[in-house]
Amino acid sequence: xxxxxxxxxxxxxxxxxxxxxxxxxxxxxxxxxxxxxxxxxxxxxxxxxxxxxxxxxxxxxxxxxxxxxxxxxxxxxxxxxxxxxxxxxxxxxxxxxxxxxxxxxxxxxxxxxxxxxxxxxxxxxxxxxxxxxxxxxxxxxxxxxxxxxxxxxxxxxxxxxxxxxxxxxxxxxxxxxxxxxxxxxxxxxxxxxxxxxxxxxxxxxxxxxxxxxxxxxxxxxxxxxxxxxxxxxxxxxxxxxxxxxxxxxxxxxxxxxxxxxxxxxxxxxxxxxxxxxxxxxxxx
Length: 284
Ligand code: TA6
What we know:
The chain has helices spanning 111-114, 233-239, and strands at 8-12, 15-19, 26-31, 58-59, 84-89, 97-105, 121-130, 133-141, 147-149, 151-153, 156-158, 166-168, 174-177, 182-185, 196-201, 206-210, 215-222, 226-231, 251-258, 264-266, 271-282. It is mainly beta. Strands 4, 10, 11, 13, 14, 15, 18 and 19 form an 8-stranded antiparallel beta sheet that branches. An 8-stranded antiparallel beta sheet has the order 5-6-7-8-21-17-16-12, with no helix packed on it. The radius of gyration is 18 Å and the shape is globular. It is built from 2 helices and 21 strands. It binds 6-O-phosphono-beta-D-tagatofuranose. Belongs to the glucose-6-phosphate 1-epimerase family. It comes from Kocuria carniphila. It catalyses: alpha-D-glucose 6-phosphate = beta-D-glucose 6-phosphate. Keywords: Isomerase.
């Protein structure tokens, strides 16, 4: 078992964070003056080949088991691949953000995994740490034939008490409920009262109101037709060996995605960018 090296730290006066080349995985972020915004399980694994429970896993080129329902590894290979650090800008002066950029291509993926996605691609992932956290994933089809892919920035947010939060911005949106396996429509703000695993069809900005931490986290996005909301609640938490039994109370996933029938189709030479932008304000 090969342990992962320590993540890179990037900072500037308005905020700081850490990110790994493994999975281009954002591990933490805090705007200056605020508690950390991202959640990582106390039981998270940190060895090569394992997904990391928390922060912002990149799901690519499929989501979960994929649309065929049998793809492995879950959520694709990007989050367990070693990305190349293209350039890293750490700003000490009064810069708006500290930026890191990562690149992954089909040539970086081992042959066995590539069999599941036999396409030529280049993925460029740019992370800006500052008063906001901006993460942009650009995928380019570098081959000669079109392909489709799913993607998600599977963001784990740290909350004071998941049973007291209200998630606003998806009112009226249609969603697929993965727990009941039914299509539903969201009537009011989302509250967490049981296992919650929903794929919303919405391009709108979402706000997570967290009265226990007296703050509101805003999740804005571009280039994304889906928002996924996930909280495993009690039984699912017990079933995960990288998730402490009571940790469901301190996290919620709000994911920026293009999945299911919103998979992205790229013609040869074409590119697509999806961006998630997090910000925090006082009061809920
Ligand atoms: O985004 C929600 C979800 O698809 C859930 O169904 C659950 O599987 C979660 O992702 C975590 O997936 P992981 O493979 O990281 O355990």
